[in-house]
């Protein structure tokens, strides 16, 4: 928002994060974000605070972007943090203002929050709640925010207020750049977001299901994906078979979507997402099986795991297939050593019992099998000769189909991909 030229106050309840942000440090790894942060702090357009009072007094446009994690022991989304923002902020707002929700929420949430906000705020009907879902990808957050492929806004159709005009003003530079701006009701806007993530998850699980058939038939899923991907109706993106999807969004979003559809009496419509989830989780089990096959037995084996983040260019390990596979293999008696270019600290915090190495080579020291589980450029560039001297056995399983099988085989390695002969 500051980069788009606005005066911005960032609010967080985590004082450690605020301290870092104020010092121009991003508290997670996101390429290019630190420069944007520093540039805008220096320009005086961006400040941070923990005070809701200050936020309410400062702004008449509020963006709500807190987490909606999966509830413990349930599929549904935990809306505690979203609700807390409204119950804390709304009573402090005294004049006309708009709150734009960006969090991924179950359909119906915006409507409920609108009622709550109007009840709690001295501004009453002058406080509007609209929904403006976020489609950015981790690792491409800056690019996706400054050059999104679309903007979606859901407004309360029963109370046509200022929300659309305010959004058009906030996003004016993007709208002038001809970025599609779709205005709809709040329920549709909420569903756009969950449907987009459900579609992406389905696309990945589709190719992973086909990859299981390819394995059974001795076919190659990577060539198959290239071939079907040339059909513009299908498209090649998000057709990479491997250990599947993870992260803080896709897995919990498809579950929350199923839970919400159930509450609405439309559960049958989304039963296929249960299968999407099953196919995805089966990739992790398959990876463990392949590692066991490679070692004979996992008991006492030494396993190198390259990659811990749920995808490259991120230090996020939430529901990461890589870390999950590493953990399962360790639980079955192997000594596992993990290396990731950026996610070491987060991995240690989540899985302190795994072994960690400072470099890919150190992780591969004495390994019976090397697993590539996140397709970082650093791993794509690995040369068989680089690892020849450190491993115990020259066996590599490519969980992201990101290396050249021929090259590794030509140089004397046993190479296995997922869904490849
Ligand atoms: C996802 C969506 O792509 C964003 O549009 C959305 O805004 C975001 O969730 C969100 O809801 O906030 P993100 O979680 O950053 O973004 O990650 P993706 O790039 O979608 O990747 C998700 C997972 O799918 C990763 O584990 C990745 O390795 C895996 N993946 C992706 C595959 O296994 N195969 C593919 O072909 C593509």
Brief sketch in words of this structure:
This protein has 421 residues and is an alpha/beta fold.
Structure description:
With 421 residues, the protein is α/β, with parallel strands linked by helices. The chain folds into 3 domains: 8-185, Rossmann fold; 193-276, N-(1-d-carboxylethyl)-l-norvaline Dehydrogenase, domain 2, CATH 1.10.1040.10; 280-417, Rossmann fold. Helix content is 44%, strand content 13%. It contains 18 helices and 13 strands. The strands form 4 sheets. It has a 6-stranded parallel sheet. A 3-stranded parallel sheet has the order 3-4-5. The longest helix has 32 residues, at 186-217. It is globular, with a radius of gyration of 24 Å. The chain starts with 7 loop residues before the first strand and ends with a strand. The mean pLDDT is 97. Residues 104, 134-138, 197, 200, 204, 238-240, 242, 244-247, 249-250, 310-311 line the site of uridine-5'-diphosphate-glucuronic acid (UGA).
